[in-house]
Specification:
It comes from Nitrosomonas cryotolerans ATCC 49181. With 276 residues, the chain is an alpha/beta fold. Helices cover 45% and strands 13% of the residues.
Length: 276
């Protein structure tokens, strides 16, 4: 009678009763706290309330973002904050550059259609370690990576070769980068030509033209590098490799992908194609 009077379905009423009982159930409350601790620790304390809520929802816990915030505050779980880093790109060279074919079109319909690449640096007690990456824009997956003590053309070429070996992209793939001398080198341009790829470069001094790669480097440094003190380049290489392959590609929830990991997003897309 009350449900009819207030125009609420019986199922909605009983769902409300169940959720309210769960909220005040001490064992359920403690279990949520334990799970939030596990999620925060596995993400190296990089997940905020939005991602923790999505992770809880994914494993069957229907909780609001407000409650997640409250539980995080109660348990002292805090998100690590990002430091600022300087750019490494050297565009002051006389080598030829590609036109901006990508033009900030970061939404891609399928895998292996557009890759973006970039270089960053990591400090160790042995000196700088340079990291180059290649990202598939469709899934934001890191499909190629390379690290070296020297920021030479060979670094970006080997990184792209790794992506080619892993993914076997077809002729016509667009490969976008900034105007750094490594990407303008004869070796790199020859690699693109030999594989039938289309080169693309950001406009001079415009980091937003390669925002996806810049965003990944920001996440890597915020979530892992800035909290480490690498004694050797080898130590940094192993830690970064673990971050890319074991965390970022496999488990990190990406807001652009509807809070799925790159691997999960690609797997679900492949299933959709088979069904169709």
């Amino acid at each position: 009678m009350m449900c009819r009077l207030f125009r609420v379905s019986r199922s909605a009423y009983y769902d409300y009763v169940r959720r309210r009982a769960n909220y005040f159930d001490n064992s359920y409350h403690i279990k949520l706290i334990d799970i939030i601790f596990d999620i925060a620790e596995s993400s190296h304390y990089t997940y905020g309330s939005r991602r923790i809520k999505k992770a809880l929802n994914a494993i069957g816990y229907t909780v609001s973002r407000w409650r997640v915030r409250s539980l995080m505050k109660e348990t002292g779980v805090q998100v690590r904050h990002r430091k600022k880093y300087r750019l490494t790109t050297n565009s002051n060279h006389k080598q030829p550059v590609f036109d901006n074919k990508l033009n900030r079109q970061f939404d891609v319909a399928g895998p292996n259609q557009v890759y973006v690449g970039d270089i960053t640096y990591i400090w160790t007690q042995e000196g700088w370690l340079y990291l180059a990456i290649v990202i598939d824009l469709f899934s934001r997956k890191i499909v190629g990576w390379g690290m070296s003590s020297r920021m030479k053309a060979r670094l970006v070429c080997d990184t792209l070769r790794m992506a080619i070996w892993q993914r076997r992209p077809q002729i016509g793939l667009i490969v976008h980068s900034d105007r750094g001398s490594q990407y303008a080198s004869k070796e790199y341009r020859r690699l693109l030509k030999d594989n039938g790829f289309i080169g693309s470069m950001s406009r001079l001094g415009d980091c937003w033209d390669n925002a996806v790669a810049e965003s990944f480097f920001g996440s890597l440094k915020q979530e892992r590098v800035q909290w480490k003190s690498y004694q050797t380049r080898y130590e940094a290489q192993q830690d970064i490799l673990q971050y890319i392959s074991m965390f970022y590609n496999s488990y990190r929830l990406h807001s652009y992908l509807g809070y799925k990991s790159p691997n999960q997003y690609e797997a679900e897309a492949a299933k959709m194609i088979k069904v169709a």
